[in-house]
Design a protein that fits this description.
The chain is of the alpha/beta class. A seven-stranded mixed sheet has the order 3-2-1-4-5-7-6, sandwiched between helices. Helix 5 links the parallel strand 2 and strand 3. The protein starts with a helix and ends with a strand. Bound molecules: S-adenosylmethionine (SAM). S-adenosylmethionine (SAM) binds next to helix 4, strand 2 and helix 6.
Length: about 210
């Protein structure tokens, strides 16, 4: 069975998105804003339905699609905090939260996650942390992410295989991508070898890791 056939088959079981998210997904595609793909949508929907997180942290808002998506399946009293640094996307995300009447349950923190993560307090801890920002920076965020994770909390990291590039020898990739390549391998190693976490690597979509706090 080819991978394409398998994907088409699996895709045929995808659930319909609510109308406003379908429109937002279409807008993102038309304007080249990268947002979570159906496989990540399915995984997040499953995890959120199962774990019923009351506090979610997202690193990488873009225009708010995934934050809104998560809010659809989260418990009513769940609060989502999401971080974005790109000035052009911030007003669009805010507008999308308001239009969906979710501005009171989704807080957008504006700025670089490197600064914001270290300023957040772990008092309550986040039950689910979704990493979807610049891939080369994940390794630098990791200590803060673990610090902010509640006991039994889960870290979901997207795009860890970088379109398959991560499997290549570092000599086969361009110098520009070599740093990201090294850092992402370092990140996966850190996740899988940290005594505080149990991590599984899922070879779906562009590679996803799930890490649970022990
Ligand atoms: C893949 S997009 C996020 C997509 C979004 N999670 C969704 O599915 O709707 C990644 C976003 O992370 C933001 N980003 C990258 N590095 C960041 C950083 N260090 N701090 C804050 N935001 C960052 C980018 O500006 C970009 O909008």
């Amino acid at each position: 069975m080819t991978d394409e056939r398998l994907q088409t088959f699996l895709h045929s079981f995808d659930k319909e998105l609510p109308e406003y998210l379908r429109k937002l997904e279409k807008y993102a595609k038309e304007t080249d804003v990268p947002i979570i793909r159906p496989q990540m949508q399915n995984l997040l929907r499953f995890l959120i339905t199962w774990k019923k997180p009351l506090r979610i942290l997202e690193v990488g808002t873009a225009i708010g699609f995934s934050a809104l998506f998560m809010s659809e399946y989260a418990p009513k009293d769940c609060h989502i905090t999401t971080i974005e640094k790109y000035e052009k996307r911030i007003p669009l995300a805010k507008e999308n939260f308001s239009k969906a009447e979710k501005a009171d349950i989704i807080t957008l923190l504006e700025g670089d996650a490197a600064d914001i993560l270290s300023s957040l307090s772990p008092d309550e801890g986040f039950d689910l942390i979704f990493m979807d920002a610049a891939k080369g920076q994940y390794i630098h965020f990791l200590e803060n992410i673990i610090r902010l994770l509640s006991p039994n909390g889960i870290i979901v990291s997207d795009n860890i295989l970088q379109e398959g590039e991560l499997l290549e020898s570092k000599y086969a990739i361009t110098r520009r991508n070599r740093t990201i390549h090294n850092r992402m391998r370092e990140y996966i190693y850190a996740l899988t070898h940290d005594d505080r976490l149990e991590t599984i690597i899922l070879p779906i979509a562009d590679g996803i890791t799930l890490s649970v706090r022990k």
